[in-house]
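Extended Data, record GNAT family N-acetyltransferase
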Amino acid sequence: MGSAAQGRRVSHCGKPRLPLIDHSLVTLRHLELSDAPAWYAYLADPVVVEHTSWDLRSIDDLQSNFDDYASTQPSSPMRLAVVLRDGGQLVGTIGLNAISPQHRTAEIAYDLSPAVWGQGVATAIVNAVVDWGFQRLGLLRIQATVLESNARSIRVLERCAFEREGYLRCYRQIRGKSGNFWLYARIAGVP
Ligand SMILES: CC(C)(COP(=O)(O)OP(=O)(O)OC[C@H]1O[C@@H](n2cnc3c(N)ncnc32)[C@H](O)[C@@H]1OP(=O)(O)O)[C@@H](O)C(=O)NCCC(=O)NCCS
């Protein structure tokens, strides 16, 4: 049985050790409820959510996400804050959803403020969280589902060596309209 099935590995102070980021601009820390306003500030931008299934009407709609992140169950979703090394401002989030300790699988999700787009931040954090998921959590498969129109995210996944596995028709509702998604995955030990 792998470590994902035994719960998330924790450091001596009781929190999972965090992925190390190979990027001069940002680092990661645990996401906290007090981050909600900074997170919502860019998620309220239609440009940011255009190619995602986010459907937020107010900051209060984020509350259920924070309730899920606060759970200590090994299968509950986890989310990290992407913060500027200089000043600590939150400029993104990244996490794992649909974590299955039994099957040692999870689905990666991420978003960045447009203020830091185009500088390789997403590529750095996705690579770091994938490596961490394999090495620290013992996952064997990390998948991503991406709306077919989300060219930026598709480029990130392909730069991070995710392989396209399939086409998911009518997979999710995108603010009232059905959306087709690509399924991507990386497998532990496969470069
Ligand atoms: C998806 C998203 C995270 C991608 O952000 P991004 O800025 O395009 O991706 P990166 O941070 O990896 O930056 C890559 C770009 O920076 C450039 N770049 C500059 N320095 C770089 C470096 N050191 N390393 C890698 N790329 C670098 C690359 O050439 C690339 O440009 P290109 O895409 O025009 O070729 C962002 O568009 C976003 O938050 N979108 C809204 C939410 C969303 O769609 N989430 C994903 C749902 S599946």
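Summary. The helical segments are 36-43, 46-49, 63-70, 121-135, 151-159.
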